[in-house]
Amino acid sequence: MLPVRTVLFDLDGTLIDSIRHILDSFHHTFALFGLPARSDDDWLRGVGTPLSVQFDGWTSGEVTVDAMIAAYRMYNLAHHDERVRAYPDAALAVRTLRAQGIRVGIVTSKNRNGTRRGLVVAGLEGEVDGMICADDVENPKPHREPVDRAVALLGADPRSTLFVGDSIHDMQAGRAAEVRIGAALWGPFGRADLAPSEPDHWLESPMDVVKLVLG
Fold first, then answer.
1. Which of 15, 54, 92, 105 is the most exposed place for a label (fewest CB within 10 A)?
2. What domains are there in the chain, each with its CATH number?
3. Counting runs of H as helices and runs of E as strands, what totals does the chain give?
4. Looking at 10, 12, 166, 170, which residue is catalytic?
């Protein structure tokens, strides 16, 4: 097995603690359009997939997916900086990896503007080597395309690439792209949620990524 030379991170639930804010943004959007409330668990199952996928099937009349996405983003961005923060040691882990010559990329289902906002709040602006966002792909996670594109963007070898994410969608995308996959257990999902994907590595904290990669 080749040593890891490239680490790809999911964003929400992996580098930034934003899941509560994401769920509240979904609840706000449904209430705004008078749609039936859904539980946190219902929304959580789709976290890691694009908004267009999450809202698909809930449209009627003048309620379009585009209108729902716009309402979600307006609320989410208005409250983003006060409610989102980096997970402990997430920024340190990224900086430590890059200081040792490891390439670091972001693979997220967030759009590019939201991704930049998240990186700024996390203190990671300018600290990653590239990112693949929802705007960049035709087939979002759990499809392999986002991971494949990140590998190509960074000039990486899949065999020496590790993708770290918190959701089953991350694990499935990484497995399909034939990179090593690490399950981030500091996010909203536990071992029981992620075990079906059989991750190569179980990671309890961001610094576990550093220990795994640098030894």
1. 92
2. 6-17+85-214 (3.40.50.1000), 19-83 (1.10.150)
3. 10, 8
4. 10
